[in-house]
Amino acid sequence: MLDTIDSHILRRLAQNSRISYTDLAKEVGLSGVAVKERIERLVNQGIIEQFSIVISAEKLGKKISAYLELEVEPKHLDKIVAALKENERVAVLYEMTGACILHTHILVESIEEMEHFMNESIYSLEGLLRVENQILLKRHKNQDGLNI
């Protein structure tokens, strides 16, 4: 179980994974060494899986953010997952509950690039049963992980 200090550390790391041990230590009333040891323990326990950054896809020219729900034949699932994992336009790929559904988030520069991606990388997949496509209009909140 997490104590209140571990919970505070996780919340702050989720907000800013670059926060220093010293600054965290001041917030929780421990030494920097104690905070470092707690973070290492959380990593070793698998509670913290990775430290990451959030990159603005739009500022890198990826103006279109789209979400695809792909229903696939179960016998083709592994092959389709492997193909999509290798595609640089696929930012997120989750297998969901239901009738063999893959949730896919893609980032592209234009509608034309999206059309090309759909024709070349999606519609050509063997075993694809259904595709739903939604383009993101505006992001109001983006949070990975749990509220602690």
TrEMBL record:
Q: Which SMART domains match?
A: HTH_ASNC
- Domain of life per record: Bacteria
Q: What is this protein called?
A: Lrp/AsnC family transcriptional regulator
Q: Which UniProt keywords apply?
A: DNA-binding, Transcription, Transcription regulation
- Which residue numbers delimit the HTH asnC-type domain? 2-63
